[in-house]
Structure formats: structure tokens, C-alpha cells
Design goal:
mainly alpha, 8 helices, globular
């Protein structure tokens, strides 16, 4: 994790060094930085209508940067493999892919943010 406000303030003096150091931080910081760096390569491979913000939430469920291996070299295969991961990743990936077709059919006034928790509960119902 980032350790202090001083560390952030130092980023303005050495931005390249700061950005490189993010990869070395480990944990959530390194994972989120790796996800951000994947966006330019991965976004064009997303299924039609799937939003990057939803994919970012899916990828944030991965446990390590190592699980992102292959995303930049073989984006299509990486995205396909998300359905086979452990934990909540397959469910969140299915929800992200469902959004483009389901969202427009929601009753008037029902927002996607209200629908997501309903869909997330399907895992516990089936489990």
C-alpha cells in the first residue's frame, strides 16, 4: 500500500520513478496498477457493450498480479479464461457480459447498480 501523503507528494517530483515503484508495492496497489496498465491492450477485446469499469471490478477480484499473466499477450484467451477462475470471478464476469443486453430491459427507474446485488446473490442460491 501507499505509505504516506509524503509519498504521493514526492510523485510530482519524480513521476516516472513513482509509477515504476507502484509495481513493486505488492498487494492491492500493484494489482490495481497492473489492471490500469492492461486497459489499452484489453479494452478492444471486450465483448460488444461490456464496459471497462465492470471488467475492472472483475479483475480486482483476482488475488495477485500473477493471475493477470497472459492478458497483454493473448487478451482474447485471457478473457475467455475468466469464466474458469475460482471464487466470484466467473460470476462477476458473467454479470459484466450480461449488462449490455439486460440493462435496457430493466423496469423504468430501476438502475443497474440496483440489479447487480440481485444477480450477485444467484451464486449463493445455486451453491
Amino acid at each position: 500500500e501507499l505509505e504516506s501523503v509524503e509519498e504521493l507528494q514526492g510523485a510530482s517530483q519524480s513521476p516516472a520513478q513513482f509509477l515504476e515503484a507502484l509495481s513493486q508495492k505488492g498487494g492491492v496497489v500493484s494489482l490495481k496498477w497492473a489492471i490500469a496498465q492492461l486497459r489499452p491492450n484489453l479494452e478492444s477485446y471486450l465483448p460488444k457493450g461490456v464496459r471497462w469499469q465492470d471488467v475492472g471490478l472483475v479483475l480486482a477480484e483476482l488475488e495477485s498480479v500473477e493471475e493477470l499473466e497472459g492478458a497483454s499477450t493473448n487478451p482474447a484467451q485471457f478473457l475467455e479464461a475468466l469464466s474458469q477462475k475460482g471464487g466470484v470471478v466467473p460470476l462477476k464476469w458473467a454479470i459484466a457480459r450480461l449488462r449490455p443486453s439486460l440493462e435496457r430491459h430493466l423496469p423504468k427507474g430501476v438502475k443497474w447498480q440496483d440489479m447487480e446485488p440481485v444477480l450477485a446473490e444467484l451464486e449463493s442460491v445455486e451453491g
